[in-house]
Design brief:
By secondary structure, the chain is an alpha+beta fold. Helix content is 19%, strand content 28%.
């Protein structure tokens, strides 16, 4: 009896501009990061190749660090692969690391924590080239009120009032280990590359940094939009806390915030991901 060919396993770390994509995960006849990733790698590798991402990311959401497991029938020479891979990837996707990994590595199941950040301004007028990666809410905002609400998010809560329908989850309870709202200079945050361009005159914006063991569909964007309601005086801090701690509501006082300001920043694993030969490849 013929034996199936041996598989080879790799871990790719990628960045992408999610504009124009329907999220990371492959969907038939719909532009996705995974589809373009697969098409590019198949230009370089013969035989069957499959991929698995650590996070789906929604339509229009960007990533500074997404992890993709690649399973290939043929071995890949990782030393010279990175430059070749980037040469065939679309300009909105960049692979920044490519290494061997264990066969039992599960990028979507193994993470201990994920970090997202949402960037926004509150200017009356924003130039079109400043809107690609930073959202805007064109009203004055009370940062102190928003920060008080942000402090309450840390901890374990049911976020049933801060998610969109359409996801199959057993529980809406999530543990948030870190949540902070601050003003930052985006010029110092984004890597100097052709992938993420921030106009030079945009040197101030808000950053919501949030880390947790998992997130519901559009959860962070619901939180941001609710914070805008509080900051603009359209909703009280008490109402925000009631939405966080109270029963599920049929209607919300806000619409989900735009996707363009949201970034998957980091994915952290509790243990090392080790190659078949035992070389340490990934450690938090």
């Amino acid at each position: 009896m013929l034996q199936p060919p041996a598989s080879h396993y790799y871990m790719a770390t990628i960045q992408y501009d999610g504009t124009g994509y329907a999220g990371f995960q492959w969907q038939k006849d719909i532009p996705s990061i995974q589809n373009d990733f697969n098409q590019a790698i198949k230009k370089l590798i013969e035989g069957k190749v499959t991929t698995m991402g650590a996070s789906r990311t929604d339509t229009g959401v960007h990533a500074l660090k997404q992890i993709v497991k690649v399973t290939s029938e043929r071995p890949i020479e990782v030393t010279d692969f990175l430059n070749s891979f980037n040469s065939v990837l679309p300009k909105q996707i960049k692979c920044i690391d490519f290494k061997s990994c264990r066969s039992d590595f599960r990028p979507a199941n193994d993470p201990h924590s994920k970090e997202y950040r949402y960037y926004f301004t509150n200017k009356r007028n924003v130039a079109p080239d400043a809107r690609r990666f930073i959202s805007n809410f064109p009203l004055p905002l009370n940062q102190d009120s928003m920060s008080d609400c942000v402090k309450a998010i840390k901890g374990t809560h049911s976020f049933h009032n801060f998610c969109s329908a359409g996801s199959n989850v057993k529980s809406t309870i999530r543990d948030i280990s870190f949540c902070e709202l601050s003003e930052i200079n985006p010029q110092l945050t984004f890597p100097k590359s052709d992938l993420f361009y921030i106009p030079q005159d945009l040197d101030r914006c808000f950053e919501l940094k949030i880390m947790g063991n998992g997130f519901l569909k559009q959860m962070i964007r619901h939180i941001v939009s609710a914070l805008w309601m509080v900051g603009s005086g359209k909703m009280s801090e008490e109402d925000f806390l009631y939405q966080l701690e109270g029963p599920k509501k049929e209607k919300r006082l806000w619409k989900v915030a735009p996707a363009n300001g949201l970034f998957l920043m980091d994915i952290m694993y509790p243990d090392a991901v080790v190659s078949e030969e035992g070389a340490l490849l990934y450690q938090t």
